[in-house]
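Continuing the batch. This is chain 6 of the set; chains 1 through 5 are on the previous pages. Same settings as before, nothing changed between runs. Recording input and output for traceability.
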Amino acid sequence: MSGADSPAVRRPGSGRRLWWQLLRVGASAGRAARGSRLRFLALLLAAAFLTTAALAAVAAAAAYDGRDARERARGPVLAAHGQAPVALWLATSDSIGSTPHWFVKIWPLTATAPPPPGLKAWPAPGEAVLSPELARVGAAEGITSRYGRVSGVIGESGLASPAERLAYARPLKAPEGKEREDWTPISGYGRAWGLGEALTVQSLTMMMTGIGGLLGLPALAFCVIAVRVGSAPRDRRTQLLGAIGAGRRHRALVDLGEALLPVVCGVLAGCVPFALATAVEVRLPETGFVLNRHDVRAVWPLALGCAAGVFVLMLTMVVALHRLGRTKGTTRPRRLAERVPHWRFAGLGASVVVLLAGQFVHSKAYIIMFAVGTIGCWAFLPSLIGRIGRRLGTGMAAAGRRRGGIGMLVGGRWTAAHPGVVIRLATAVIIGLGLVVQLQLWTSRSSDMVREADATRSRIGTGVTVVRTGGFTDADLARFGAALPAGSDLLVVGTQETETGLLTTLDGPCPAMRRLHLSCTAAALPMTPADPRVGELLRWYGTDTRTAVTPGWRRAGNTLLVVSAHKDTAQLTAVKEAAFTALPHAEAGALGDEWVLGASNMRRNVRWVMMLGTSGLLVLLAAAGVSTMAEFRRFSTALAPLVVLTGRTRVFRSVAFWHLTVPMVFSVGVAMVFIFWDSTLFLSRTSGGHLSTGLLLTGGAGAAVLALLTGALASVVTTRAARRWRPVAD
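Output for chain 6:
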C-alpha cells in the first residue's frame, strides 16, 4: 500500500494515480456500507445548513454596506455659512400601528435644485411620495392621503432597504417667518444623517453574533453528528486499512472519497437561497426585512469563497474525526461502554458559578454573565444527564433482572453502556426548550411606562390624541380644529409659573369642558376624573393638572389634545391627517404612544432573534433526528438476534421504551427544572418580564410526546430490521 504500483490499490498498467484509486475505493465503500443512505443524507444536510449560515453572514454584511452607502447618499448636506441653499429639509416621525417611520418635508428654493435620491422629480405642493412598503402597510390607515396626494413611490436608490418605511412630502405653501426656523437649509445630499433604519438597526457585530450563535453553532453541531453517523463500519474499515499498511494520507483519501459527493451536493443546496436572493427581492420571515438583490449580487465572489471554505471545513472534519484507533499493543477487547469526560462536569460547575456570581454585578455585566452561564449550562448539562442516565440504566437493568422483564433488562443495560444517546437527546431538548423560553422572556420585557401606555390604550383606545408642534398661530389652530373629524374637541396643554413651580393646565372651550365633566372657569381648578379620558390624562400629566378657560382658549405651549368619544383607529388616522396638513410641523399619536413606539425597536430585535433562534432550533431538531435514526440502526442490528432467542418481536417495543423513551422523558424533566431556575434568576435582576409557565409546560409536554413517538418509531424500525436479519460473519 505504500508504493504507487501496489497491486492492492492499483491494477498494473492502468495509468491511474493512487489518489484517484483511493477516492474511488472510498466512494464504493460508502455506497456498500450499512446505513450509507442515512450518512449521505446527514452529510448533505449538514453541509447545506453550514453553507446557508455562512452565506447568511455574507448577505448580512452586504445588506449593511448597501444600506450605509444609500443612507450617506440621501442625507442632506447643510448649507455652509454664506452659501445659498438650494432646498429646505425637515424630518419628523409618524407611525403605522405600533411601528414608527420617518417622513421628510421638502421644499425646493431654486429651479435647478436636485430632488432627494429615489425621487424622479420634486412633488408638487400638497403632494407626497411614499416608499412601496409604507404605501402597502399603511393603506388601511389612510397613509395615501395623510401627507397629501400621493404622486409616486421612492426608488431603490433612496431607500436603505426595499422594506423601509419612508415618505417625502411637500406642503401646500413654502414655510415662512417663524415656521421656517424649524427647517434645515441644505446645499445638496451626500452626508450621513441618521434617518430611517439607520436609527433603529443593530450593529453589524450584533447581527453577526446572532447569526453565528443561533444559526452557525447548531449547524456545526449537526456537522459533527453527521460525520460520526454510522461510524462503526468505517472505524472497522480504518482499522483494516491500517493493518495492511495504509498511512494517514491513504486513509484520509478513502474517507474523502466516501464523503465527497454528499458534501458537494450539500454545499450546492446551501447556495440556493443566496442565489435566489441575487435574482429577486427576498422577504425574510418574521422580521419583514427585504434583502436588496443588488447588494447581495455585489458580493458573489465572497460568497463563492465562503462556500469553498465550508466545503474544505466539512472534508477536514471528515478526516479529523476518523482516526486510527490505537490498541497499545494489546489484544484485549476494547470496552464497549462509553464514558463521559470529566472536564464536562467542570464546565457545568463553572457555568453555574458564573450564573450565580452574575447576581452581584451591575446590569450590563450581568447580561453578559447570564448569557455565558446559560449557554455553558446548555452545553454541559446534557453530560450530567448522561451520567445520571447511566445510573438510571443500571437501576433499570437490575429491576428487570429481578422481575424477569427482558425489555427492561436489555434496555437498561444498553442505556448504561451508551449514555451518548441520552446526551444527544438531552442536548436537543435543553437547547430547544431553553431557546423558546428565553425568547419568551425577552419578548415579555417592557418598561413600566410601556405597560402603562398599553393599559391606557386598552381602557380608552384612541379617545385622546396628543399632537406636538413646533408652535402654532391662531390661524393654524382654527384651521386644525376645522379639519378634525366630527365629535372631536380640541384642548391646549399649557404651563404656568406658580410659587411652587410649573403648573400644567388644560385650556379649552366651555362646551368641550362640559362634555368632559370639567368646570368652565377662568381660574385654574383641579380636574376631577369623572370621565375615564380625564382619568388617563391625570395619570400622564400628573394629579395636579388643572383646567382653565381663557380668552381665545389658548395659552403658551406646543402640545394639543384631541378628545373624542370615538376610540378606533379611524379616529387616530383622521386626526393625524388633519395635523399633518393643517399645522406647520406636527407629530401625532394616541396618549402614551411615544412609549409604545419607543419599545418597537426592542420588539424588532426580538423578531430577529426569534427568526434566527427558530432556524437554529430546526437545525438542532434535524441533528437530533439524524442521531436518533443512526441509533435506531445500531439498536436494531444489535437486538435482531433476540428474535431467534425469543421467537417474538414484541420485546422490541419494551426495549425501545426503556432505552429511549424513559431516558428522554427524564431529560425533559431535568431540562424543565433547570430552565425554570435559570429564568427565575434572570427575572430577579430584570424588570418588566415574566415567565410563561404555560409555554414551559406546553414545551415539556411536546417533548414528552416526542419521546413517546421516538420509542414507538424505534420499535417499528427494529422490528422490521429483525425480520430481515440474517447471521453474517461480522
